[in-house]
Amino acid sequence: MPNTPRKPPKGWLWSDEAAEYLGVHVVTLYRWRRDDVGPKGKQVGLRRYAYKISTLEAWMNSDHADASHATAA
């Protein structure tokens, strides 16, 4: 049986999906998390993070998103 990744909980996205949803590279999302400037995620297991879609939308509509996009480049 192939090793297929689990689906995130309903209404949530894994880090790579969340980065695509936000229109940034996944490394940018990792840096935002490290620097505590991006949307808040939830650690699932040892190395996986999930992001609630409603949290991503709220963060994109906030003033924080504009400032973080400027530092993403």
Characterization of the model:
This protein is globular. It contains 4 helices and 3 strands; from the N terminus they run E-H-H-E-E-H-H. The longest helix is centred in the middle third of the chain and has 10 residues, at 26-35. The chain has helices at residues 15-22, 26-35, 53-60, 63-72; strands spanning 12-14, 42-44, 48-52. Helix 1 packs across helix 2. It is α+β, with helices and mostly antiparallel strands. The chain has a 3-stranded antiparallel β-sheet.
Please give the number of β-strands. Answer: 3
For the largest beta-sheet, the strand count, sense and barrel status come to: 3 strands, antiparallel
Instruction: Label the overall shape.
Output: globular
Between the first and last Cα atoms, what is the distance in angstroms?
A: 41 Å
Which series of helices and strands comes N to C? EHHEEHH
Give the fraction of residues assigned to helices.
40-55%
Uncertain residue ranges: none
Which whole number gives the mean pLDDT? 85
Instruction: State which percent range the strand residues make up.
Output: 15-25%
Which structural class fits the helix and strand makeup? alpha+beta
User: What is the radius of gyration?
Assistant: 13 Å
Strand line-up of the largest beta sheet: 1-3-2
